[in-house]
Request: fold
Amino acid sequence: MIAMLLAGGQGSRLGVLTESVAKPAVSFGGKYRIIDFPLSNCINSGIDTVGVLTQYQPLRLNTHIGIGIPWDLDRNYGGVTVLPPYEKSTSSEWYTGTANAIYQNLVYMEQYSPKYVLILSGDHIYKMDYEVMLDFHKENKADVTIATMPVPLEEAKRFGIVIADEDKKINDFEEKPENPRSNLASMGIYIFNFKVLKQALIAMKDQSNCDFGKHIIPYCHGKGKRLFAYEYNGYWKDVGTLGSYWEANMELIDLIPEFNLYEEYWKIYTKCDIIEPQYLAPEAVVERSIIGEGAEIYGEVYNCVIGAGVTIGRGTIVRDSIIMKGATIGNNVTIDRAIIAEHCVISDNVTMGVGEEVPNKYNESIYGFGLVVVGEESHIPAYISVGKNTAISGFTTRDDYPDGVLPSGEVIIKAGDAE
Amino acid sequence: MKAVGIILAGGNSNRMQELSSKRAVAAMPIVGSFRSIDFALSNMSNSHVQTVAVLTQYSARSLNEHLSSSKWWDFGRKQGGLYVFNPTVTADNSWWYRGTADAMYQNIDFLKKRHEPYVIICSGDCIYKMDYNKVLDYHIEKKADVTIVCKDMECGEDVDRFGVIRMDEESRILDFEEKPMITESNTISTGIYVVRRRQLIEMLERSAVEGRYDFVTDILIRYKNIKRMYGYKMTEYWSNIATVESYFQTNMDFLNPDVRKYFFRETPAIYSRVDDLPPAKYNPGSEVRNSLISSGCIINSKVEDSILFKKVFVGKNCVIKNSIILNDVYIGDNTHIENCIVESRGTLNANSYYKGEDGIKIVSEKNHRYVL
Reply:
């Protein structure tokens, strides 16, 4: 079995976090990136041939994956291959949908003549043995197996829902139904018999924005193929919104987290270029937090997920926040409920996450949850006060903050290249 | 690069006490996430030395495991790469390495087959950062036969465990004594040498014929009057870890921000084998002050002025002061550890008390570990 990992999506609901990186390359849990979870699952499940389909802002993803060394996917035969869209003699198009992206890489899959193909997406946090799912697929002589997860009925309307009989054979689907008939949500993970997949992709090649959930699965169902629902009961988290992203990070710092990274079994691998230990100064206070390699903590940290190489200055207090790799937080800064992306610089005496909660004026559905979100490589000058439900991106100066304040619900996005 | 590298990593040190009972000094874990040999290897790699031989002998399992893949130091190459030479029995030799010169002599084919004109020799038990190209340029400029990298030690440092050097104004070496009882000079040899490859082969072959096996006493000291030997002074941080006290002190030096900045935040970097551990976790009750904490640690109590290596678990209500806890140690609740080095993979029972009264105490506890 080979795996095809869809990693080309922007993840626009993560707002400024995915301004310059694809969602699968966003940091998670102090030292990881989201794509580490499916990639580690692959190698832990014994899958050593993985095609990673990239499209949106692939630079970080490419550097991260490289030739696959951290996941032992540097192989003579197979291994990891990054598959960007490419020009063809007859047509040149971007990947227009999940299934279209796979269709455009039929040649890649065919060179391994696989019997089964596993389709994954690069934006979920979970540990899953795909081999168990494959066993289920074989046992049922299925053509297509969809991984599903029971969700509370009231939440089922946010998902694609699968209706299956007692033998887990799928009878019907509903996409985000008002009144769901089942609580089995599709996780966006599929195993196909390669022949079935190939035939469906070719048959549907002219479908615009060809998507697995919307087109390929219904097509296979319509053709009378055997579709089965594999039920997964472990931890699985979609980190598609800032709220769920923040929450999933915060769950890692529980005393015994539901999603436990400290187990010997089923390790998660990642590329780490910072390996030295972290330093906590005599005046530092750290409680209920996880901290990555090489961080230097001089201030106080409560309930935080701190990435590798982060510096937190003297007299600074950080609470309930996520601070990603390489960010520098100055002295006497106060930060509450913030997500601060990689390599940001927060100058001295900045206060973040204060005031009333006001709905975001720019995009209420993205920037909410009372969070302050700061995009990659942003710079915030000294003595600035930032409210809740706000977002900042780019190299900001004092002139961007009237009276030195960014009130709750406001957004500053400075586009263009920094000098 | 015009030189091939040799790292001498076969040594044992009595002055490491129990710490060297299960590993060679070069494999000693250091500064939380490294092994001693990482520094020499990273220096080689950062100086663009393409081919490096590591000579091992004493208790090499741990070292071999660490070197099982050379990609971490960028030596996974088609051209050159990392060679590990353990002693072997051959048709005409069944000896262990009888000394540093003998170790190189027994692998003289390696030296003969190379094409690089120079050899850089160093040991695996020193902590430093160095661009060997600078020494090589100096060596060529001085038209030296052998260049020895040396360092002025502070008064009071144990100069008597090193080779002591006296030089003239031109930096030519006048005198070289190995581990003298009393000495005027405080300039010591760091064990880093640059030699022309053919010169080295010639000296090694001659010593072998004479039945002499040590590189320092039987080659450098004997040849000092007939060969052009020069000293290259290094002024940056350098430390040899081959005694318990210096090992402890070297680790503690990294609590100093300047030392960390020099090694970790300035290029080039020091590399090591990566072992995929999660970030360190601080649970309620943790109170960590002036300490270095490595990945995979879980902390539930008080840690002060200490270094926790990888994957250390600290239970509730413990006090850890001025100590070094090596890799994969489990510390039960209510334990007090002060002025200690806790040996790796140990399990300390709850309610135990360890304190080094005068000097550093080495704790090696192999209790049964209950893992949930």
Notes: The longest helix of chain B spans residues 197-210. The interface with chain A takes residues 31-34, 71, 255, 257, 260, 263-264, 269-272, 274, 276, 278-284, 286-296, 298, 307-309 of chain B (CB under 8 Å).
